[in-house]
């Protein structure tokens, strides 16, 4: 007996998906900002040296890009450079929000595996683990 093949699911309709993402982001941002004394933070920023703020901004934006390049070098056959940049930022975000040191890596690997069947091979998780080991080794030096 031949059963009909089920229709592939394509997820939520795009407007609903975007609405859920924006809503989840808003809730997370509210949770983070509600724990911060905004007026005290603004006062401290106003009193800080502008050169120090510029250096902090540059370093804060440059480090994730360097991390993305390092991971892309390890996983180049499997992912594109654009995906490496995007999913490094996603991993950093989840690493800040979720508890645990590797939660961001698990999140970026899981999201990529759900999105793209090409990364569902042993070399992809190995690239994430190797990236972690390289980062730890560099930190020791």
Explain the overall architecture:
By secondary structure, the protein is mostly helical. Helices cover 74% and strands 0% of the residues. It contains six helices and no strands. The longest helix has 26 residues, at 50-75. The chain is globular.
Q: Give Rg in angstroms.
A: 20 Å
Q: Helical region count?
A: 6
Beta-strand portion reads under 5%
The chain-level structural class is mainly alpha
Shape: globular
Largest sheet: none
Low-confidence stretches at least 5 residues in length (pLDDT < 50)?
A: none
Order of helices and strands: HHHHHH
What's the β-strand tally?
A: 0
Tell me the span between the first and last alpha carbons. Answer: 64 Å
Average pLDDT score: 81
**Amount of helix:** over 70%
In short:
The chain has 141 residues and is mainly α.
Question: How do the strands and helices of this protein lay out in sequence?
Answer:
Layout: H1 14-34, H2 38-47, H3 50-75, H4 81-97, H5 103-115, H6 123-140
Helix pairs in contact: 3-4, 3-6, 4-5
List keywords for this structure.
single chain; 141 residues; 74% helix; mainly alpha
């Amino acid at each position: 007996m031949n059963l009909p093949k089920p229709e592939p699911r394509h997820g939520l309709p795009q407007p609903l998906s975007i609405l859920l993402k924006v809503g989840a982001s808003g809730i997370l941002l509210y949770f983070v900002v509600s724990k911060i004394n905004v007026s005290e933070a603004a006062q401290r920023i106003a009193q800080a040296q502008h050169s120090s703020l510029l250096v902090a901004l540059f370093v804060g934006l440059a480090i994730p890009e360097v991390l993305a390049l390092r991971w892309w070098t390890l996983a180049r056959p499997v992912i594109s450079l654009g995906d490496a940049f995007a999913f490094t930022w996603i991993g950093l975000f989840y690493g800040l929000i979720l508890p645990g040191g590797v939660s961001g890596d698990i999140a970026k690997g899981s999201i990529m595996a759900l999105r793209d069947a090409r990364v569902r091979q042993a070399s992809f998780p190995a690239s994430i683990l190797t990236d972690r080991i390289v980062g730890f080794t560099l930190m020791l030096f």
